[in-house]
Fold:
Amino acid sequence: RNLTVPRLEFIVRYFTAGSMCRRFTLEEGIPFNPPYAEVTLKDDIQGDPLISERLCIMKGLLKEGQYAEAQDIVVRVGEVLKKELASLGLTLIDFKIEFGRDANGELVLADELSPNTCRLWDKKTGERMDKDRFRRDLGRVRETYEEVAERLHNVLK
Ligand code: UDP
Structure:
């Protein structure tokens, strides 16, 4: 379907990780219970700032009610993902998804799910199994992505 995708990222966190730890002086791996949802504006120059419902509406990015609707969807998506990944020995730390709006202005999930868009830690070893391998120069980037793909393929067989 042809969609207009506002430059918004809907994030859900189950554990602290990444730049938020630097910004708020937190250790990585502290659990959020219940999960912690955030909405950010995709704007590299501004460092992807948090954005409120009112500003999304003011900027014409979302209609009334869609901020909460999208947050509700992303939390439900996360529940499914977290369980499935746990069965593969992977802990879902956080992830983001984006939404589009169709010709009627209705919200439609419009994104990929991959180790590029979420943080996955191996349940046993705590090893990073996602984009942080590349960003932190941890090595074995390709091998780790292949390992995630293999675990997924095995479960889909
Ligand atoms: N994320 C993403 N694309 C972005 C920003 C974030 O896929 O442009 C994902 C990121 O991989 C992580 C989650 O969203 O799984 C939360 O990212 P965070 O806000 O912690 O930013 P980061 O520390 O990755 O800069």
In short: The mean pLDDT is 96. The chain has five helices and six strands. Residues 9, 11, 18-20, 48, 94-96, 117-119, 131 surround uridine-5'-diphosphate (CB under 6 Å). Strands lie at 8-15, 31-41, 90-97, 99-101, 107-109, 118-122.
